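Journal club prep — side note

Before the paper discussion, L.F. wants everyone to see what a predicted structure for a comparable chain looks like in C-alpha cell form. Sequence:
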Amino acid sequence: MNSTVTSAAARFAAAYAALTAAHEVGDYLVQRDADATAKGHPGPEGAAACRRHVISYTATQGAALWAANRYLNLRITPARAAAALLVSAATHYAADRCAGHWAETGDDAPFLVRAVHACGKSTWLTRDPAAGALVDQAWHKGWIALAAAVAARG
C-alpha cells in the first residue's frame, strides 16, 4: 500500500512524534558524557562541547524525520526538513549553553537564563534543583513543535 499523508495536520503530528522521540534519544542516549558535562562551561571548551552535542542531536533528529518521511510517505521536502532541523538545532544550542546556570541571577548569566528569571521564575529556579532541567526541556519541546510545523507546511 502506497498511501500518502496529505493533511498538514497529519504531517505535523508525525513530524512532531519523530522529532520528539529523536530529541529524547539524542539528548540522553547519543550525547557524550563529556559533552553533557562541559556544554555549559564558558569559553571555547564549552562552546565546542555544545556544538558536538547539537551536531549529534540534529543528526539523530534528521534520521528520525527522514525515516518517518520515507516510511509514512509524508511528502516533507528536503528544504522543509532542513529548515525544521535548523530551528531545532539553533534553539537547542541556545538552551544547552545555559546548562548548569539556571539558578544564576547576575548580569553575566546567559541571556536565556536572565530571560527566564525576568519572567518571574527566580524563586523556583533558585530553590528547586530540578527546575533548570524542566525549563530546558520545556524550551526544547516548544521549539520542536515549531520545527514540526515548519516541516509539515505545504
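L.F.'s comment for the group: Residues 8-99+131-152 form one domain. Keep this in mind when we get to the figures.
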